[in-house]
Peptide/nickel transport system permease protein
Amino acid sequence: MTTAIAPAPESEHEPTPTKIDEPSKVGEIPQWKLMLLRFRRSKLAVASVVVLIFLYLAAIFAPFLSPNDPASVNQDFKYAKPSQLTLNGGPGMCRVTQEVDPINIKTVYKTDCNNAIPIHFFGKGFEYKVLGIIPTDRHLMTVDEGRLLLFGADSNGRDIFSRTIYGARVSMTIGLLGVAIATILGVIIGTISGYAGGRTDNVIQRFIEVIMSIPTLPLWATMAAVMPQDLSVTNRYFLMTIILSLVTWTGLARQMRGKVMAYSASDYVAAARSAGSSHMRIITTHLVPNATSHIVAVSMLQVPATILAETSLSFLGIGMLDPAISWGVLLRDASKLDVLQQYPWILIPGLAVILTITCFQLLGDGIRDAVDPYS
């Protein structure tokens, strides 16, 4: 009699074959995304980005936000204090009456909020062109009588609020443009110095040391003072940008030299040389791209220094000059102590300088921490 032998059951512990059709994506986070995640950890840096975006948008749409023409002179409002606003019966501006103090020999302004002047939103005012293209006369806030002076008026009766917004166009853009030029110079000269080495490196480094040994402010002042006084506002703006950039490139050049010298000793650069890559290809493909994160961090930290330099030179009267509008030009009225004591609101543009520089410094710190591989 034949007995059928049943097949042995499969072991429950037998390993199940693993599918390897799709490669694992674990650890494949791009470098830029990793930097973004690190940057978002800094709440102050993120808040600074929001504030700076708001400031640049305000500079772009300065004519729309300005209730008065920033160049309009009216001696009836000389050193007028900021307008007092009221919500009694809707948004309005308290009426202002002008009197002369016979004792102190100065103009005194008295406010009356019981009969306020209504504020119109999107009302008509001075004409301008949106982005220099579309003509219009609409403004965010206007009044039918008097002048709406949110920050008060200067010695010529000009609106400080409107001039502060317009001044951001010069002070905030001259920092970016100047740093952009300085970054290009620093990257090119620093890369040549670090890659070429030898006598070329020695000559470039001695030249950089000579420039860095000269005190910055006197050097800026000398270069700005030799500019002709009859230059147009546009020409003076570009010359000031070039002057500021010619001094600030040295620090980045020395740092770029060190980076390039370190990268040149790497295995991948040696492999590129063995493969017959040209010097230009090695520089543009391997050296400069690897230093991009460091370049961005250093450049961002240099922007507030450039803005402060332009403000200082304009404040001293050797930078941007009237009729140009910049924060340094606006602060020239605050150079007299007696005027500052009586009319402290002329110092308000200085708050815009402090806010902008602080935001750029916090942003630069956030970017520096984000690009640091050991953070």
